[in-house]
Design brief:
281 residues, alpha/beta
Length: 281
Amino acid sequence: MPREPIPPRPSSLQERLASRLFLALSPRLPKVRQPEPPERLTPFEIVEVPRPGERGPLAAVWYPAEGTARGAVLLLHPWLVWGKSYFHLRGRIHALRAAGYHAMTLDLGGFGTAGRPSGFFDRDVEAGLAFLRQRAGDLPLHVWGVSAGGYWAHFVLSRSNGVAGAMFEDVSPHLFEWSWRMAPSGWPAYLFFRRVFSTSYRFLDARAHAALMSLRAVTYVSGDRDPGVPPQDTLTLAAAAGGQCRIVPGAGHLESIKLANEEVLKLALDTFERAVSHLSR
C-alpha cells in the first residue's frame, strides 16, 4: 500500500499565530531555576544546542556512555516546570549509560534558559537531533520521549530516517484532544483553533505522523488510569507506528515509570536493541 503523504505544515504566518494561541491555551507553568544534575549522574557536560535563525540556543546535558558506546538517545521531557531535569529521577539515564548509550537531555523552548519557540516545538526536537547526530557521529540514534516531549517528536520522526528506535511514555495522539478531556471548559477556544487554524490542527495529529515514521522498533507505554491519554489512544498510536505497547495497570499520567520502573526501563532498552539488530541485518 502506498504511504499517505505527511500532513502539510501550515504557512510560517499561521504557524506563528497558531503557536501563540497554543501556548496561551496550554497549562501555565511558572519559571523556576532548574537544578544542576546530581552528583550520582557524573560525569556529564552542559552543552548548548543551536537553533536556526535568531532564536537563542537550547540548554542540554550530555551524559557519556559507560565503556564502549553503542548508540545515543535523546530524552525529551513532559510539560513540567523542571524541563530536562525531570530525567534526574527514575533511572532512565543510569540504565541507558550502563547499557552503553550516550544520553542527552534537552530543554524545549520556554523551559530552562531558552526563550519561547517561534513555531511548533518539533523544531526544537529537530535541532536536538541534529546536534546529537553531530556529537554521536555514526552511532545509531534513538529517541525517548515522555508525554509532550514524545508527542512533538512524532512530527520530526515522520520526516526523518535518521533515528533507529523510539520509546514513548504517556503520549496523546492530539494535544487538543488531551486538553478537551482535562480542561473541558476551554472548548470554545479549542473549537476556534480547530476551525480558524485548520491546517495546523490537522498537522498536529500525531496519528498521521506515527504511520509515516520509519523506525526499526518503537514502543508505547501508558497507564490504564490516565484521564488524558486513555489506553485506546496508546493502542491506536502503536498500531499506526507498527510498534508494541504496554498498558500499566493502576497507573495515571506519568506514573507508569513509578509503578513499573524496571519493566519500563527494560522495554526501552529492548526496543533500542531490536532497532539496532534490524540495522545490522
